[in-house]
Amino acid sequence: MILPIVAYGDPVLKKKAKEINKDYPKLSELLENMFETMYNAHGVGLAAPQIGLPIRLFLVDAEPFADDDELSEEEKEVLTGFRKVFINATIIEETGEEWGFTEGCLSIPDVREDVFRKETIKINYFDENFIEHTETFSGLAARVIQHEYDHIEGILFTDKLSSLKKRLIKGKLTNISKGKINADYRMKFPLAKKGR
């Protein structure tokens, strides 16, 4: 089932999410719905807060980046079939040079800005079967994970922009929260019903 994606301005996007256990109700159905929602919106990642659930759960499928001609064959190989579920994730360390990449977010349609992130991360998480992993990821795989991880920490990519950039996009963000945007997927707008 395709779920509506919560738009910028909803308080759930600014909350630090809570851990869940393996008995979380209908977890496999939730994951299936989240993947379907993400693919419908042409996203490469989706976090539970983006569908209104303040829980430490996100999923990624970075395969669309594997078609980028500027990537090395090694990185293309890593991204091919890179589809993962992260439950109760904790980034243990971020290392390497910071590098910029233009990011967007399904909760903030039509806003794309350069965000600087560390090159490599080490992350501890549980997969969809509640098997624990500690893994290291680099490059675009790390970036997609970092972006989604921020969501479960109550951080949006726009929070990482300079104050000047924030001022320049303020009007756009206000319009998104009021539903004055045409997204080609289902969205839920926090201020639209209140008529502000």
Automatic annotation (TrEMBL):
<keyword id="KW-0378">Hydrolase</keyword>
<dbReference type="InterPro" id="IPR036821">
    <property type="entry name" value="Peptide_deformylase_sf"/>
</dbReference>
<feature type="binding site">
    <location>
        <position position="147"/>
    </location>
    <ligand>
        <name>Fe cation</name>
    </ligand>
</feature>
<feature type="binding site">
    <location>
        <position position="105"/>
    </location>
    <ligand>
        <name>Fe cation</name>
    </ligand>
</feature>
<dbReference type="InterPro" id="IPR023635">
    <property type="entry name" value="Peptide_deformylase"/>
</dbReference>
<dbReference type="Pfam" id="PF01327">
    <property type="entry name" value="Pep_deformylase"/>
</dbReference>
<feature type="binding site">
    <location>
        <position position="151"/>
    </location>
    <ligand>
        <name>Fe cation</name>
    </ligand>
</feature>
<keyword id="KW-0479">Metal-binding</keyword>
<feature type="active site">
    <location>
        <position position="148"/>
    </location>
</feature>
<keyword id="KW-0408">Iron</keyword>
<comment type="similarity">
    <text>Belongs to the polypeptide deformylase family.</text>
</comment>
<protein>
    <recommendedName>
        <fullName>Peptide deformylase</fullName>
        <ecNumber>3.5.1.88</ecNumber>
    </recommendedName>
</protein>
<keyword id="KW-0648">Protein biosynthesis</keyword>
<comment type="function">
    <text>Removes the formyl group from the N-terminal Met of newly synthesized proteins. Requires at least a dipeptide for an efficient rate of reaction. N-terminal L-methionine is a prerequisite for activity but the enzyme has broad specificity at other positions.</text>
</comment>
